[in-house]
Automatic annotation (TrEMBL):
Designated name of the protein: Ras guanine nucleotide exchange factor domain-containing protein
InterPro entries: Ras-like_GEF (IPR008937), Ras_GEF_dom_sf (IPR023578), RASGEF_cat_dom (IPR001895), RASGEF_cat_dom_sf (IPR036964)
Protein biosynthesis listed as a keyword: no
Start and end residues of each Ras-GEF domain: 289-533
Species of the source: Schizophyllum amplum
GO CC terms of this entry: plasma membrane
Chain spans, region Disordered: 1-83, 250-283
Length: 566
């Protein structure tokens, strides 16, 4: 696998008070950010697309007009060009929340936002917004899907603070209620535990580690104080959810240890298979159809994709250890990173390399044309399954510089296959803000989708970089968290998250397509141990010269007449 320099570091916002981490060089072997180029980064021609990821205002969805958003439809007195100290906004004891004329939150201190979110935690109708039935509410690049305040905040909060700091603010909110009359005190304390309950119950945003410990400690301390039956019931519910979350994390750690002990590239086997002493037998190459391979690709990449959390996308952009990491053992922490955005990127790169390897490995021109037709059909099947991740990976390989040198191999393809190939490659076109890809995404967008993460990561980064995380209040200059920025970024984050139950949580080896998945894993391992990208380029040059010589000798015409040509 060929490492690529991507330069995806988040820039430091001057005057924000806290310097962003992760300013070191980036040498990650990723393919996810190849949204701005029409070819693999290892190709000499990859610079033909001029979009630069380090310029988030360019060719990104959030840099377009966002007047459709309820937040931008009403002017407000905050100047986004006046950044303030993020530390002051987080540590302020003042409970401040500012809204626009439509009632949408636009800024506030952390304490004020936690108070507001706690009041909303038990509700599912939020002021002026309608709740989303699933994460990906809109595939349009010119409109922002509306995410409720609670989910918007917890999608993005790891960009500017830690879960432990949020829990401390919840504790303060709970204890502030002691100064209130009885009805208001009970209501505010109930709300604090409703916030904890909703936060921990959501697997996409649930915290881990110290944050869970502090939540449990607060619940146990409160149980020790005589209180109403309703309050005790609420606390017991929160404790039960916290314990379930801890048990879930323990199981995840056990799986991580089991996976690391099997070694890289070795799929673990289920207990029933271990007891029976059997393993999954991969399909033979002759048994694999484009449709079966497309399903295997979707299940394999979908297994990585469904496990990604908002905090992992933020961590990937910031290039720092995630504050929500729950593992203490170094081996588990390393495996957790492999299961994040980086793991999906490595897998996507492996698919690109495998396709190029498969197309360039045969010596016979007709065999290469047959392999090319097979992968064109596979990519089309992936597109039909709305697996744009594998579709664009195969398309990247098919139009890479080494493969495009095989012009006479391509001439052997039927006309309908060439038209299909042209349509697949058009998805990679970065012009007009990836218009072709977004148009394909809008088709039946209510269906489960495995997106091309590169495009959506660029959108998310642009939303985070366009405005400062903290701004100054126009009246007193108080530092406030920029909630308008949080909401915009959350709308982009929603495009990166799978719809509920889109990809079932089950072991790949228990799938009815396990044999096809085993074949795919075997082929990926084989190609990784084969030729490097540099060797593939050299191989393409040799094959191209061979094709040119054969063409000059009119080999195809002689073969068509029945002559045996060497």
């Amino acid at each position: 696998m060929h490492p690529r320099q991507w330069n995806v570091r988040r820039r430091v916002s001057t005057g924000s008070g806290e310097k962003q981490k992760g300013d070191g060089p980036d040498s990650r072997p990723d393919s996810l950010m190849r949204a701005s180029t029409g070819s693999s980064s290892s190709d000499p021609r990859s610079s033909r697309s001029s979009s630069d990821y380090r310029s988030p205002h360019r060719n990104s969805a959030d840099s377009r007009s966002t007047t459709a958003s309820s937040r931008s439809s009403d002017s407000h007195p905050f100047d986004p060009c006046r950044p303030a100290s993020i530390t002051e906004a987080l540590e302020s004891s003042a409970s401040i929340v500012h809204r626009n004329s439509s009632g949408a939150i636009i800024a506030g201190t952390l304490h004020g936002l936690v108070r507001e979110l706690a009041a909303q935690a038990g509700e599912f109708q939020f002021l002026h917004r309608e709740p989303c039935t699933h994460y990906r509410c809109s595939a349009s690049s010119s409109t922002l899907p509306q995410i409720d305040d609670f989910r918007a905040f917890f999608f993005i909060y790891t960009d500017f603070t830690s879960p432990e700091r949020i829990v401390i603010s919840v504790e303060r909110h709970f204890h502030d209620a002691d100064a209130l009359p009885a009805p208001e005190r009970l209501d505010q304390q109930h709300n604090a535990f409703r916030l904890i309950l909703r936060w921990v119950q959501d697997p996409q945003i649930a915290p881990a580690g110290i944050a869970l410990d502090r939540m449990a400690a607060l619940a146990k301390r409160t149980l020790a104080i005589p209180g109403s039956a309703n309050m005790r019931d609420q606390i017991n519910k929160a404790l039960n959810v916290i314990e379930q979350r801890r048990a879930s994390l323990t199981r995840t750690q056990d799986v991580a240890v089991d996976t690391s002990s099997t070694g890289p590239g070795r799929p673990s086997t289920s207990k029933s298979q271990q007891s029976a002493g059997t393993s999954i037998k991969p399909l033979r190459a002759s048994e694999v159809t484009p449709g079966e391979l497309a399903i295997a690709l979707t299940l394999l990449e979908g297994d990585r994709y469904r496990a990604l959390k908002p905090s992992e996308y933020i961590q990937y952009l910031r290039q720092r250890p995630g504050s929500t990491a729950s593992s203490t053992a170094s081996v588990i922490e390393a495996d957790r990173k492999k299961r994040g955005v980086q793991a999906l990127s490595i897998l996507n790169n492996d698919i690109i390399h495998w396709v190029k390897f498969s197309l360039l490995d045969p010596d016979d021109e007709e065999a290469r044309a047959s392999a090319m037709l097979f992968f064109i059909n596979t990519a089309q099947e992936c597109r039909r399954l709305r697996n744009f991740s594998s579709t664009t990976a195969i398309a990247n390989a098919l139009q890479s510089a080494p493969v495009e040198r095989l012009q006479y191999t391509r001439q052997r393809l039927p006309a309908n296959a060439l038209r299909t190939l042209e349509g697949l490659i058009s998805l990679l076109d970065p012009s007009s803000n990836h218009r072709a890809y977004r148009a394909a995404l809008r088709e039946s967008h209510d269906q489960p989708t495995l997106p091309w993460l590169a495009v959506h990561l660029r959108d998310l980064n642009a939303s985070l970089e366009r405005f400062p995380p903290a701004i100054s209040a126009p009246t007193d200059g108080h530092a406030l968290l920029n909630f308008d920025r949080i909401a915009r970024a959350a709308a982009r984050m929603a495009d990166l998250l799978p719809e509920p139950s889109a990809f079932p949580d089950r072991r790949l080896q228990d799938s009815p397509h396990a044999a096809a998945i085993a074949y795919l894993k075997r082929e990926l391992r084989h190609s990784a141990r084969g030729r490097s990208n540099e060797e593939l380029i050299e191989r393409a040059a040799v094959l191209s010269e061979s094709e040119e010589l054969a063409h000059r000798a009119r080999k195809r015409e002689l073969e068509g007449l029945g002559f045996r040509v060497r």
